[in-house]
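C-alpha cells as discussed.
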C-alpha cells in the first residue's frame, strides 16, 4: 500500500513538473514552425509553377537573350530538385542549400524581368504582363511567408535558450532551428552607386 502511494506521489510530482517545464510550449511552437514552413514551401512552389509559362511566353520573342532563359530554367530545375522534409528545419546545412537554390531562382527571375524591359513587343504582350503581375504577387507572398516563419523560429529559439526551458530542451533534444539569412550580407551593406550620366 505504501509503495503504491509512493509511486502515485512520484507520478503526480513528475506530472506537475512537466506541465511547468515548457514541454507543451515546445510542441506548440514546433507545430507553428512547421505550419509556417509549409506556407513558405507553398509560395516557392507557386513561383516555380509560374516559370514554365513565363519562359514559354518569352521564347516567343525571337531575339530574346537565350543565356538569360537558360539560367532561369537551370535555376528552377535546381530549386525544385532539392527534397525538402521536416528534418530540413533542423539541419542547418540542408536549410542553407535550399535557401541558396531559391535565392538563385529569384535572382535569375529578376534578371529575366530586367532584360525583358528591352523588348517592347514582349512588354506589350498581355499574357506576359499578366504573368509578371502574378510573379510580383508571388514574390510578395514569399516575403510574407518567410517573415512569418522567421518570427515563429525566433519564438522557438528563444524558448530553447531561456531558463528553465533550456533544461527541457536538453532533456528532450530540442535544438535551435536554422533561420533565413541574408545572402551576400557584405554586398548589401554597401550603398548602391547612382550615376545619372549613364544613358
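Sequence:
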Amino acid at each position: 500500500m505504501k509503495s503504491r502511494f509512493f509511486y502515485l506521489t512520484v507520478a503526480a510530482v513528475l506530472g506537475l513538473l512537466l506541465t511547468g517545464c515548457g514541454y507543451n510550449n515546445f510542441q506548440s511552437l514546433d507545430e507553428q514552425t512547421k505550419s509556417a514552413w509549409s506556407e513558405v514551401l507553398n509560395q516557392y512552389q507557386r513561383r516555380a509553377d509560374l516559370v514554365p509559362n513565363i519562359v514559354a511566353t518569352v521564347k516567343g520573342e525571337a531575339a530574346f537573350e537565350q543565356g538569360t532563359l537558360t539560367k532561369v530554367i537551370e535555376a528552377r530545375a535546381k530549386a525544385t530538385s532539392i527534397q525538402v522534409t521536416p528534418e530540413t528545419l533542423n539541419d542547418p546545412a540542408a536549410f542553407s542549400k535550399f535557401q541558396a537554390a531559391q535565392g538563385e531562382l529569384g535572382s535569375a527571375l529578376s534578371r529575366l524581368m530586367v532584360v525583358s524591359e528591352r523588348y517592347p513587343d514582349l512588354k506589350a504582350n498581355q499574357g506576359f504582363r499578366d504573368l509578371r503581375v502574378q510573379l510580383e504577387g508571388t514574390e510578395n507572398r514569399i516575403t510574407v511567408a518567410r517573415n512569418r516563419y522567421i518570427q515563429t523560429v525566433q519564438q522557438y529559439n528563444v524558448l530553447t535558450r531561456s531558463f528553465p526551458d533550456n533544461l527541457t530542451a536538453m532533456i528532450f533534444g530540442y535544438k535551435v532551428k536554422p533561420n533565413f539569412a541574408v545572402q551576400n550580407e557584405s554586398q548589401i551593406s554597401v550603398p548602391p552607386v547612382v550615376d545619372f550620366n549613364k544613358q
